[in-house]
Automatic annotation (TrEMBL):
Gene3D superfamilies: Ribonuclease Inhibitor (3.80.10.10). It is found in: Cell membrane; Endomembrane system. This is Leucine Rich repeats (2 copies). One of its GO terms (cellular component) is plasma membrane. The chain crosses the membrane at residues 30-54. It is a single-pass membrane protein. Keywords: Cell membrane, Glycoprotein, Membrane, Receptor, Signal, Transmembrane, Transmembrane helix. It comes from Bremerella cremea. Its main location: membrane.
Length: 363
């Protein structure tokens, strides 16, 4: 047995005599490089995760100061026409020549730090877009310089609302894509300073309409792409304090405009892209102080325009994309104070030549 073992014994070669495979040599040379790349990648991931975690725990709002901008508003407080604006009327709430600073918070948690930055910047206008209010709400009333508040898909609770109505300089509130407007509007109506309510893509029920009717401080209502429940518009048009009603692209029963003539102070009416018919303009023709009327993209024809010839203060009318003809110009020519430069009839049966001739003609 011992002899057999000696015959099968194999001598172990020395290490220096072993020749390594070339492919293996190349792989071993690449190992340090690969390890460096992996370490670098993991470092970047850690930095990114740390930054994200830090933002979630204590967001940095220093960028808000960078976004804050100033612009000079030339119009005095009230409703003023700006050609080309989405709904025909630009409503501002600044004294002539005032500097306007605005900021936007998007996808952000509103904690004490955020409100501290807003107070320090003395913003005039602020937008809350898909935000979450973390504080108990008292911070809203401490924003003493805010005049316009735009809320987009940001839940507002009772505490926050009760503090919003205490904001001393707040003149305009905009609610966009918010579900519980029926509970928000009654709270906002308690404000002693809010004069303009802007609603976008919301459903308006009777409770909200009743609050608007009782809102004595409210001067302007702008409801864009909204859905009105039955009888809500009928209630709103009884709010005699309203000076501006804008319902562009909203859905409602046009017969509910029958009592519109009760709004003796109404100066601006926007019915763009609404289901109104010629007969519905009968009530519009009895508004003694109406100055600006927007009827673009409706089914209005010459018969509807005939209801408007007794409007003594009408200065502007937009009939773009309607069924009017040259006869509408003849009818409008009977309004003595109408500014013919502000008669718009694009994409109608009225030719550019006829419209230009109408504008040049003296009343």
């Amino acid at each position: 047995m011992g002899r057999l073992f000696r015959k099968t014994k194999v001598a172990t070669p020395k290490a220096e005599n072993v020749v390594m495979n070339p492919a293996k040599q190349r792989f071993l040379r690449l190992v340090p490089v690969l390890l460096s790349v992996i370490v670098l990648f993991l470092g970047i991931v850690c930095i990114f995760l740390s930054a994200s975690f830090a933002d979630n725990v204590e967001p940095s709002y220093s960028w808000l100061e960078q976004k804050a901008s100033a612009q000079r508003l030339e119009d005095s407080y009230g409703a003023s026409f700006v050609e080309g604006s989405n709904d025909g009327v630009e409503y501002t709430s600044a004294k002539k020549g005032a500097i306007y600073c605005e900021g936007e918070l998007k996808n952000t948690t509103l904690n004490e730090t955020a409100f501290t930055y807003c107070r320090a910047l003395r913003l005039k206008r602020i937008t809350l877009d898909h935000c979450h209010v973390e504080t108990k709400g008292r911070s809203f009333s401490e924003l003493t310089t805010i005049e316009e508040l735009y809320v987009i898909s940001t839940p507002l609770t009772g505490n926050g609302l009760s503090e919003i109505v205490k904001m001393p300089s707040l003149k305009a509130v905009s609610l966009s894509s918010i579900d519980n407007v029926e509970s928000i509007i009654p709270m906002l109506s308690k404000s002693k300073s809010i004069e303009l309510l802007i609603l976008y893509d919301v459903k308006i029920n009777n409770e909200a309409a009743k609050s608007i009717l009782k809102w004595s401080q409210l001067k302007g209502l702008r409801a864009i792409s909204c859905q009105f429940a039955s009888h809500t518009v009928h209630t709103i048009v009884k709010a005699s304090n309203l000076e501006s009603i804008q319902l562009p692209e909203s859905k409602f029963n046009p017969s509910e405009l029958a009592d519109l003539s009760m709004l003796r102070s109404l100066r601006v009416l926007n019915l763009m892209k609404t289901p109104i018919q010629d007969k519905d303009l009968s009530a519009v023709g009895r508004l003694p102080h109406l100055e600006k009327l927007y009827l673009q993209s409706t089914a209005i024809s010459d018969e509807g325009i005939a209801h408007l010839i007794d409007l003594p203060n009408l200065q502007l009318i937009s009939m773009n994309h309607t069924k009017v003809t040259k006869r509408a110009l003849d009818l409008l020519g009977k309004i003595p104070d109408l500014n013919r430069q502000f008669v718009y009839a694009d994409n109608t049966a009225i030719s550019e030549a006829d419209l230009e001739q109408f504008r040049r003609a003296k009343p």
